[in-house]
Automatic annotation (TrEMBL):
Name used for this protein in its record: RNA polymerase II C-terminal domain phosphatase-like
SUPFAM superfamilies in the record: HAD-like
UniProtKB keywords: Hydrolase, Nucleus
Known catalytic reactions: O-phospho-L-seryl-[protein] + H2O = L-seryl-[protein] + phosphate; O-phospho-L-threonyl-[protein] + H2O = L-threonyl-[protein] + phosphate
UniProt cross-references to PANTHER family, sorted A to Z: RNA POLYMERASE II CTD PHOSPHATASE, RNA POLYMERASE II SUBUNIT A C-TERMINAL DOMAIN PHOSPHATASE
Length: 318
């Protein structure tokens, strides 16, 4: 695995051009009968070139548009990716976007007070781009319905430190176009996530998230999300975090105070607490005295879940 931080490589051997034509033809015929269709692109197996339906494969369009992998090949990739991460003393960490790392609302949902203050602030900070370390941004879209985005306090330091200990993946119920723009605010140089931005288009179950489209073994995966209900099959991997609301939209219904009135403290935020918990799990997992390396990280998650303060909400998108 040449570059663990950028993406997961996919390669398959094909018959070389030097093979005698008759031998290559015979092998091609056998492949058409025996091929397990490990990698499928635009409905065709890349090995035998036959048309293949989607019944026995999983979508990995976040790695390459229209890409699917067979269950067997995906398992092999999980083994390889997990092994490579362990070689760097890293586990895998899945990060939600909305209400976990940031809060985004449509401009039309801002109160007049918020619009007057926040839009001007976002436009002023936009001159410096994401590298200017701003935390409020305006985001236009192809539909013309713009968003204003507030990054959660401590998020940049969180990502910098978490990247040293984990292979980071974004997993959001937001759409691919929106998620691509937002992750550029968090990771403008693609240092942290690379191609690993999983969106609702990649989900195999409507309205739910699953590790079946994550190329890592479940025993080595941690999840940080504000919403428990979207992970019904992976509660043991989940570290639930208090949802982040900065704008007033949606806060009255949920009985919380928006950060616009009183923002989280940078070094006492929920992300700072979550980082301490994650660092503790990582330290214990790789502690040679405990002999846990190569085991199931979920046993430690159960012991430390309660240390992340707050109770996760029930947002409609996450």
């Amino acid at each position: 695995m040449a570059d663990l931080c950028k993406s997961t490589p996919i390669s398959l051997a094909r018959p070389g051009p030097s093979l005698p034509r008759s031998i290559a033809s015979d092998r091609a015929k056998r492949r058409r009968v025996e091929c397990s269709h490990p990698v499928i692109h635009e409905g065709r197996c890349l090995l035998c070139e036959r048309a293949v339906d989607d019944d026995h494969s999983l979508p990995f369009g976040f790695l390459r548009p229209s890409l699917r992998l067979s269950h067997e090949y995906a398992d092999r990739m999980r083994e390889a990716s997990t092994g490579a991460a362990l070689g760097f003393k890293k586990l895998h960490l899945i990060l939600d976007l909305d209400h976990t790392l940031l809060h985004a609302v449509r401009l039309s949902d801002l109160t007049p007070e918020e619009e007057e203050r926040l839009v001007a602030e976002a436009e002023r900070k936009a001159e410096f781009g994401p590298e200017g370390r701003g935390d409020i941004f305006l985001d236009g879209s192809e539909t013309g319905k713009g968003f204003v985005i507030k990054l959660r306090p401590f998020v940049r330091e969180f990502l910098r430190k978490a990247d040293e200990l984990f292979v980071l993946t974004v997993y959001t119920m937001g759409g691919r176009a929106y998620s691509s723009r937002v992750t550029k605010l968090l990771d403008p140089d693609r240092e942290y996530f690379g191609d690993r931005v999983i969106t609702r288009e990649d989900c195999t179950l409507r309205g739910r998230k699953s590790l079946d489209v994550v190329l890592a073994k479940e025993t080595n995966v941690l999840i940080l999300d504000d919403k428990k209900t979207v992970w019904p099959d992976h509660a043991e991997n989940l570290i639930a975090i208090e949802p982040f609301y900065y704008f007033s939209q949606g806060t009255e219904k949920r009985g919380v105070q928006p950060g616009f009135v009183h923002d989280e403290d940078e070094h006492d935020s929920a992300l700072a607490t979550a980082l301490r918990v994650l660092e503790g799990i990582h330290q214990r997992y790789f502690d040679p005295k405990l002999g846990l390396e190569g085991g199931d990280v979920r046993t430690m998650v159960r012991q430390m879940q309660s240390q992340v303060r707050g109770t996760p909400g029930d947002q409609s998108s996450s």
